[in-house]
Amino acid sequence: MEEEKELAGKVALVTGGARNIGRAIAKELARGGAAVLVNARSSRIEAEKTVADIRAAGGRAAVLLADVTDPAAVAAMVAAGAKEFARLDILVNNAAVRAETAFADIAFEEWRRVLASILDASFLCAQACLPHLSRAGGGSIVNIGGLTAHTGASGRAHVVTAKAGVVGLTRALAHELAPRAITVNCVVPGTIDTARGLPGAPERPPPRQGLPPLGRRGTPEEVAAAVRFLCGPGARYITGETLHVNGGGYMR
Q1: Is the pLDDT of residue 114 over 60?
Q2: To pair with 160 at 20 to 30 A between CA atoms, which of 95, 111, 200, 205?
């Protein structure tokens, strides 16, 4: 039996789509039938690998290199993406930076860099995509949150603050964009088995509170499955929600 393509005819933009969770999301949306625009700031080779994987599976995809903290770059990226596939229906704000610094040692420049990469980028991309989502007759915005925004954590005041802001932005936009039939939700990964792999990247820290009740790390594909659902026709009455994918590591 042919796999259901509930996103056929849709076009999705995934920021930070070159690696790890972003790559899994891009590939999962493509499996659902969407054409996918894979954004990366500078990781062209990794982004092209994501696109190659999608095309090899029979999907459509393209690379969009852009710094999502730069308003002009975001505007140009969205315009190019909408031109590439003639429409835009889905935005996944996944781009982020990982940083661990004791609060007393966080320079203001680092604080601003982290907030810009997570929160400012989500604002800029949502605002730039809005006319296209509206023109498509409605659409989906999915913001990728962070577990520590709900639990707190030492050494990550900037990341925790930015990810908490993403939850607030999600709820605000869910209210404001509902009349346009645009749903806005947040998916929060828990302890996920991702590879860092970039030169000079810090080693992965151990789980802050051990493994979750399910006894293992999650996979990027499990996060991606939640994103795909929220972008599909079965989730059109879900908006303003925060969906945790964490194996029971955080229960509200």
Answers
A1: yes
A2: 200
Residue ranges of the domains in the chain?
11-192+204-245
Q: Is the pLDDT of residue 52 over 90?
A: yes
SS3 58: coil
What is the side-by-side order of every strand in the sheet holding 61-65? 61-65, 35-40, 11-14, 90-93, 139-144, 182-189, 242-245
Cβ atoms 196, 204 nearer than 8 A = yes
Alpha helices in 86-156 (DSSP H): 108-115, 121-135, 148-151
DSSP 67-106: -TT-HHHHHHHHHHHHHHHS---EEEE---------GGG-
Q: Which two tokens stand for residue 186?
A: 């947040």
- The whole-angstrom separation of Cα 131 and Cα 3 is 31
CATH architecture for residues 11-192+204-245 = 3-Layer(aba) Sandwich (3.40)
Pairwise pLDDT comparison (121 vs 195), residue with the higher score: 121
- CA-to-CA separations, 73 to 62, 113, 115, 133, 176, in angstroms, rounded: 17, 16, 17, 19, 25
**Bridge partners (DSSP) listed for residue 242:** 186
Q: Tell me how crowded residue 136 is: count the other CB atoms within 10 A of its CB.
A: 20
pLDDT tens per residue across span 118-176: 999 999 999 999 999 999 998 999 999 999 999 999 999 999 999 999 999 999 999 99
